[in-house]
Amino acid sequence: MPSPREASQSLQEKLNETLEAVNKTITRLLPETDLPEARLFDAMRYGTLNGGKRMRPFMVMQSAKIFNVDMKRARRAAAAVELVHCYSLIHDDLPAMDNADMRRGKPSTHKKFDDATAILAGDALLALAFEILSDPETHEDPRVRCELVKELALAAGGQGLCGGQMLDLLGEKEEFDLGTISRLQRMKTGRLMTFACEAGAILGKAGEPQRKALCNFAQDLGHAFQVTDDILDVEGEVIHLGKPTKKDDKAGKSTFVSAMGKEQAKARAEMLVQQAIRHLHIFQGDRAETLKELAMYVLKRRA
Amino acid sequence: MPSPREASQSLQEKLNETLEAVNKTITRLLPETDLPEARLFDAMRYGTLNGGKRMRPFMVMQSAKIFNVDMKRARRAAAAVELVHCYSLIHDDLPAMDNADMRRGKPSTHKKFDDATAILAGDALLALAFEILSDPETHEDPRVRCELVKELALAAGGQGLCGGQMLDLLGEKEEFDLGTISRLQRMKTGRLMTFACEAGAILGKAGEPQRKALCNFAQDLGHAFQVTDDILDVEGEVIHLGKPTKKDDKAGKSTFVSAMGKEQAKARAEMLVQQAIRHLHIFQGDRAETLKELAMYVLKRRA
Predict the structure, then answer these.
(1) Tell me, what CATH number does B120's domain have?
(2) Partners of A144 in the β-ladder
(3) Cα distance from A192 to chain B (closest Cα, Å)?
(4) Fewer C-beta within 10 Å: chain B N or C terminus?
(5) B167 chain-A contacts, CB cut-off 8 A
């Protein structure tokens, strides 16, 4: 439940607070070392502590707050989700994949280090996420920890992130219909966001309707997020995004904008955000207020 | 405990039996699909079902037998270990890493598919391993499942496989002393083998001395395995290994052979295998007989 202080904070202030807290947790989980393999850990830190809005950790923290989950535990789950997100960005940026030189306004990990180190850093971050979730510090109940591991594994694997990225690459060669584009986004973006929102419910041992409501919220919001991402790619400015724009068009990728046009895409994003917010009506009072604010933010964001 | 039938089987027969059982389990875990992202699953199957001795699954199965673990459960843990081993081979073979065109006598995964698909297939296999271990089908006790996840994550991550591979790559540029080479092998080979042997003890809720004995056995055997690998690289024949030989020398890598010479390396392997076997004396009768046979096999193998 939001404290009086939180109620007076702007969304940006809350986002910044989570950003700092999660960065601290990640820094603690990835301490500097002078071991001979230090280069690997340097790349892991570089690829995770190089900015980013920490939207997924924010979802974990906010969904956890609904169920009064201990914040130290929630931060560990939030860090695990962010490590998986960052690992996927590191691998997606590789020359063999999206070949992106820049990420969050800085050289991408393989540019700063090299391809081999970037591949290994991604791999090690993925493994670390599961190490964190399976540790008793994340939750005393091993059943809860197993559930977190299982759901994150599903979100990260062939049915989630990896499958979505595979589709994304195939989409450069063939034109997808709207159904396949939606499927792609559900796997590539939606699944991990869904886990982020579900994680709070799992940690809080929430009932099925509450858990389902958060999943539905996340699915719609993830969908809206991808639509706005595609819109930003055609009309956003490099200075806000920290990465080149119009890259989907250049790569010949099928996007929501290419499939339905910009105006219809904007209408769809708005509809999805409204729908996402409605799922949260199950939570009484202002318990889910910040998640609702987040949904509006996704619609209005410029980066 | 070995059944009368097992007692009369040769090690090769037992290895073949595990190979077939684990391949069946992996095939069931990675069914063919006609989904648009099928290419990813094709690559995952190709990278895991393309031969291989299944030594690590054999270690899981044999250590599990000591504690009368249900074989269906043990096979799931064995499959998870093998998926991690195969993922690491897929990534290690990439042009950015060891740049190996052949693996087990066939084109390596990125040669058969492409680099991007190979990267994603490896990632998805790593995630799948954790999905398997966290599933109640692997063990009814969530504490056991969490322990399996945690130990596999440690074996796969920066302190294990990934850290070892990082060192291996750094070893192409600088000469390592024997201590660093040993450390490298412990991380790159030893750690996952140790988990393979420990997994049986975790599944069987074995006591600390039994678990420790299996870990020590695996550490020494893993070390011996890497030494014999280095020896095979300089004197083995392509036809047995299914991959080019003398590649370490060409890449200027520091190996046990380069650091201590072939004869001393052979003596070291023998000493390590004897030491490994001695750790198993804690198990009465012929309970650990097959693991002892496996240790002798590592010493004599030609591939």
Answers:
(1) 1.10.600.10
(2) none
(3) 13
(4) C
(5) 36-37
